[in-house]
Specification:
homodimer; Rossmann fold; two-stranded antiparallel sheet; globular; 2 domains; 13 helices; alpha/beta; Rna Polymerase Sigma Factor, Chain: A
Chain lengths: ~350, ~350
């Protein structure tokens, strides 16, 4: 196991609890003997136990972004009304991950393959067994979080009353698979990666910087760069933006953790629940579902999200207009959260 | 100099002549003492010397694609009517390039920085001094070829009667700069690259394969992959497409040559001719100019091309509809060339 990484601490990410859901058998055949989920909550579960909202997390991220930008009394995700549970995805560095398991059989590069379905199974066990929740008022998440939202809605239609996948598809596209492969390539090609046996994530800094630049190319829109939107974020030039945000963000992360998530991202596909029949899988959804693609998203373009939503009975598509592109999810544009809040309030009011 | 690479031969690329334009002083301060341009022609210059068409080449490519798909009696670029001159860009492996110069001062990684303006200066000298041509009926090119077309129209308005930049901008965007950086990163990060002192391009095969996958992510549209358009090209799966086309295409190329072109591509900018004032530079264009962005292009999106064209007096924008994306330039879609031919015939008839 590499040396401890300060990214994956409550000091950096804000408070969370580690909650064991016990032994988790994985879709790919591996097993996590003691699966710990890093869970952050806000608000209180009401007596009727019907005000719970679940938020899975995205690639490279944690619950932190949600608590920083999405959750609060001024937002739709209002802890004075709802019991909000953000569950970090397996492998993200906080929940059981290559960088934090002691078991030598699954640490570092020996961490097992995790699928979106494994996360959803783990989360369902958590909310039912740990919190005693049978119904979720809403499941909402962005990007890989959205992949988990789609999976939730397909697997547990009786549990999920409302679903809001933001900037993510139910079935990952082959283009997105290839893109994610380039992120993987950037990390694994660094000699410092050493097949995952690096002593510190800083040994992989070169690869993580390349990963940052590739993430930037697809994560932010052409118009974001052309209009120098980053200047409004305090970074005047493209180089300032790389030096001041993208590269420090990525070089702080654990390479094996990113690879665990990237492999999972590539293979997100609810059709696995219906022998490969996407329409059949999405046809099972009974949640009131509003898909929210981002207008300039190059990871999960609007038309790909809309195509998946069209297979869900009664689903709506609400395009979030944002020049930033996929990384609008970081809520850097002041016009982003008002659109999200408006859409979620409408959904929650139904 | 690395061992000879069979990619850069008439056997692979079709016939061409090496024509010296003498000493070329470069914008960045370097010099090529004996600059040789690899030139392929079709047709005959008429007595009035007014039927010449010039075609510069794109990144990674040569004149070959043009002769294979764009030039012929059934095409607008008809050698029975026009004298067609395709000039390989400096550094592309056929014209003077890092992989083919004997001069130890500029071979391999010591090859000087080349700009789009250097190519255009060299080409203008070629057509005037070698061919005795004062007017060009048309300058047409795709991608980096389009960058050269824009530069031609700005620098030599008296020479260029018609201009057709296909899938390229007059001023490279910061997004495209960053994207190209990821291509550069993929090559230079390969330990086999050895700072450009590799013994054979095959030593850099890993980096070139990563380069291929990144090129594929942005070069082909999300819809290209989603609809499995590659199956119509004889490659059933994404992996077949990588193994059968993208990776062999890129691993055959010379790394230093690609880096020379990539650096040039990143900095294509006609505004350099007017102290950074893009509108002033494009305002000088007198050619009948039809910009032809490709509908699904992620390198040079339609809106970026259209924004540049809007600054050219009387220019038109004609969107080429193609699901393939930027790499539609390889004319793999049977609906591509009819659109190009139609647009070029209309332009040439004016």
């Amino acid at each position: 196991m590499p040396e401890s990484n300060p990214t994956y601490t409550p000091e950096t990410q804000g408070p969370y609890d580690l909650i064991s859901i016990g032994r988790l058998e994985l879709e790919e055949g591996g097993v996590i003997e003691d699966c710990q989920l890093a869970v952050a909550t806000a608000g209180t579960l009401n007596d009727a136990r019907d005000n719970a909202i679940l938020i899975p997390t995205f690639y490279s991220g944690t619950h932190h972004t949600w608590f920083e930008s999405y959750i609060g009394p001024d937002h739709a995700l209002d802890p004075t009304r709802y019991f909000i549970i953000s569950v970090n995805q397996i492998g993200n560095g906080l929940s059981t991950s290559p960088n934090n398991v002691d078991d030598p059989a699954i640490t570092g590069p020996r961490f097992p393959r995790i699928r979106i379905g494994d996360d959803v199974i783990a989360q369902e066990r958590l909310i039912r067994e740990h919190f005693g929740i049978e119904k979720l008022a809403l499941v909402v998440g962005g990007s890989m979080g959205a992949q988990q939202v789609w999976e939730w809605a397909v697997r547990f239609p009786d549990t999920v009353l409302r679903a809001a996948p933001i900037a993510g598809t139910a079935q990952n596209t082959p283009h997105d698979f290839l893109f994610t492969q380039t992120l993987i390539d950037a990390i694994t090609s660094d000699p410092g990666f050493a097949g995952g046996e690096y002593a510190s994530h800083t040994d992989v800094a070169d690869g993580l910087r390349r990963h940052a630049r590739i993430l930037g190319t697809m994560g932010f829109s052409t118009e974001f760069f052309k209009t120098r939107f980053h200047a409004a974020m305090g970074m005047e030039t493209l180089q300032d933006f790389l030096d001041g945000f993208l590269e420090p963000y990525c070089t702080a992360l654990d390479p094996n953790s990113l690879l665990t998530m990237a492999w999972k991202w590539q293979r997100g596909d609810v059709a696995r629940n219906a022998d490969g029949d996407l329409a059949a899988a999405l046809g099972r959804v009974t949640a009131d579902l509003v898909a929210m693609p981002i207008s300039e998203d190059m990871f999960f373009p609007v038309r790909d999200v809309a195509a998946d939503a069209a297979l869900v009975p009664g689903a709506q598509v609400r395009v979030i207009d944002d020049i930033v592109g996929h990384m609008a999810l970081f809520a850097v544009n002041p016009t982003f959260m008002p659109q999200i809040d408006h859409a979620l309030r409408e959904l929650l009011a139904r």
